[in-house]
Amino acid sequence: METHTDVLLVTANVGSLFDNVGEIQNEWLQELYKTIHNYKPQFIALHFQEVGGKDYMVNMGHAEDFFRSIETSEEMKDFNRVCIYVDNQFQAENSFTALGSMYFIHKTLKDIHQYDFNVKDFKAVSGQNKHVGSLDRVTTVEKEKFPKNFWPDFKWSRKGFMRTRWIIHNQALDLVNVHLFHDASNLIACNSSPSIYSANRKNALRYVINRISDSRFPLLPFFLFGDFNFRLDTQSLVQHLSTSADVQTVKKDSSNEVEKIICEEKDNDHQVLLHIEEKLFTYLHQAVFREDNGRALLKYDKEPAAFHDVIGEEDIKFPPSYPYSEEYTKPTQYMNTRCPAWCDRILMSHTAQEFIHKRDDEEKTVVYNTVGPNVCMGDHKPVFLFFSLKND
Fold it and tell me: What is the pTM of this model?
């Protein structure tokens, strides 16, 4: 009699895989398969954001090939039940989220059910269940794009969430794929603490939690994993990085608008320590984001704190997951576009955190880490959580 089920949750913003088709995709897949091989899970949940990349109208065909290559790969042959949900309906402007979720069930896992949100009951999972396109009539998934008024300055965004509900052996849980709003300008992010972008994300995440906790369906333990776009508190971080520097603010001639912030070291030939523009963030000592997995900067990772009443997270022991260089030869370098941050996360309700820690000493522990730390995976490193679900 089996006493536990090994579960692997993975979140990956794959936009850059499609914007640079072919270059890094194969390595990316090999790193995913390596992780699966190392942990030998019986249930795998893969949550993807930005399916199709920025140029999704051109790339959606490549996205379907990408999902097919995972599903039909030799490495996944022992997973005899698959559920796939890909929202690729970019023509439907009011509902398109570019989210994709794939779930793989190993042949050794006997007892697994999925919820039908229409009949409000669980059904045994069998065979290959593929839903690529409009998910409006698919009753085993709930998908929502954030209301337009969440970010009125932006004419259009693909941000939203997608939920599925499962019973693995006798443990019921919700798995929610999330993509929250990004920072549009580094300069605006510096203006206040917390930034206006942080406030937008807070509203959107509160909305998701309220939606998955409302009275339409019984409340279950949940995992929220995706690209939360959480950023370090830029204003206080910049103050910290530039304490021994001369800070110069350059404004546009035509208006009073700030164009760049330049911090020069007071001695050392006035070397530029930090240079910030709307889409530029260059810091002289970039290694601080990688040393000791960037732990010294975790104190600026303040956005999840607003939700400590309802969600928890395992300790972060990996460097910021974004924005990595997309150059094949620089897999651990960050791009100078944004301040590195832990954007990609796996959060969970307190009830979920309790059951992943219910284990005997000899059982496998919980692992929270990145996929492909030393390989170019695009601008986001995928993040995974592995745990054993103890079956009572």
Answer: 0.96
